[in-house]
Amino acid sequence: MRILSYTFILSLTILILISCIGNQTVFLSQKNLEIIRDESSQTTRDTEYVVSADINCDSKNDYAMIGIEGEKLELTLILGEIEKIPRTVTMEFGLGNSMSQSAMCGDNPKLKLESQAHDLIDVLAANPDGYKKSDVCKGLNIYDGMCDSFHLFWNHKTNTLNWWRL
């Protein structure tokens, strides 16, 4: 029940904030900046930077944003049409820990879209399991400028998000 109400509130807020934006990063004015809070959590999502693109290659725009709770970074991805009750995928990463492969070094991460129009063989020696090169679908990139960014992609074998990092 908590997940459904959270998804509904998040979806409704995003629908109001981003209509007809296409495959781009959306920058909202300070006046329109809203903080989304899950009633049972302290995770704060800053909707100043919401990205929209087809992430899972279903020909529909998906919407992503990041949130911070203490030393935890949470990515929320809303799949498909936000007018309906969408599927939501979340991933958690640490913050401020340069010794952990699953944490950002700093505490001010940003989110942007990333091209998937290339194989990753030159970078990783092999494509990650479930990765598909695409000229249309996009990946996500979480970065802080202090250490290697997280590269998120849709895993077509497991039907969910995965990530890689150097």
**Strand percent estimate:** 35-45%
Number of alpha- plus pi-helical segments: 2
- The stretches of 5 or more residues where confidence is low (pLDDT under 50) are 1-9, 14-41
| Structural class by helix and strand composition | mainly beta
Order of helices and strands: HEEEEEEEEHEEE
How would the global form be characterised?
globular
Strand count? 11
| Share of residues in helices | 10-25%
User: How many domains is the backbone divided into?
Assistant: 1
Mean pLDDT: 77
| Termini separation | 38 Å
Rg over CA atoms, rounded to whole Å, is 15 Å
Question: What report would you give on this structure?
Answer:
- The chain is mainly beta and 166 residues long.
- The chain has one domain.
- It is 12% helix and 40% strand.
- The chain has two helices and eleven strands, in the order H-E-E-E-E-E-E-E-E-H-E-E-E.
- The strands form two sheets. Strands 1, 2, 3, 4, 5, 6 and 7 form a seven-stranded antiparallel β-sheet that branches. The protein has a four-stranded antiparallel β-sheet with strand order 8-9-10-11, with no helix packed on it.
